[in-house]
Design brief:
Helices cover 79% and strands 0% of the residues. The chain has 187 residues and is mostly helical. 39% of the residues are buried.
């Protein structure tokens, strides 16, 4: 199961950079759905089948479906982002990953709380979401950035979820907020 966990974390980081480098909203929506699938597989590798099913349903199907529905109503020119900030966003995302790895080495955590590379992946995903929110000018790409940032928050809360805390409920509240946010943009 450790191999599945590490593979999911690697693919999450890779999808972050693909999101930062993509100019088309349709590709960003597919990558967001792929991140939801990866989060579900990550939870499955940690033996949380019920949580994995809920995450797959919400983050892998429901929220990307709302984004697809919104995209169908937008004009074609609204679905392409300007190219001038994409390269800077990828560089900023790489700097965020380096900072996350450095911070992981400096933070003192209880032994065994976070599986290896989960904390830097969560922080890097959070940073990439913030870069998408700030660096993109279209509202729908900013919503995708919010979803990516929320995926990072979700990753950071995964070890705490297993302890019976309220992280899962808070993550669901963030997903409901995103759903309302997407519907507001669609209307």
């Amino acid at each position: 199961m450790t191999t599945l966990l590490q593979s999911c974390l690697f693919l999450l980081v890779l999808s972050n950079y693909l999101l930062l480098g993509t100019r088309r909203v349709a590709g960003m929506t597919r990558l967001t759905a792929f991140q939801g699938l990866l989060l579900a597989a990550l939870l499955l590798s940690l033996d949380h089948a019920l949580l994995a099913g809920a995450v797959l349903l919400i983050k892998g199907a429901l929220l990307p479906g709302l984004l697809w529905r919104t995209q169908k109503r937008l004009p074609a020119d609204a679905l392409i982002c300007p190219a001038r900030r994409v390269g800077f966003g990828v560089l900023a995302g790489m700097a965020g990953l380096v900072f996350s790895i450095w911070l992981d080495g400096k933070l003192v955590m209880p032994l065994g709380l976070y599986p290896p590379l989960l904390l830097p992946t969560g922080l890097a995903t959070l940073f990439c979401g913030f870069i998408l929110i700030v660096g993109r000018i279209k509202a729908i790409t900013q919503v995708i950035g919010y979803l990516v940032a929320e995926n990072g928050i979700f990753l950071l809360g995964v070890p705490l979820m297993t302890g019976g805390t309220v992280w899962f409920e808070l993550a669901l509240l963030l997903d409901v907020f995103v759903a309302v946010f997407v519907m507001g943009i669609a209307i």
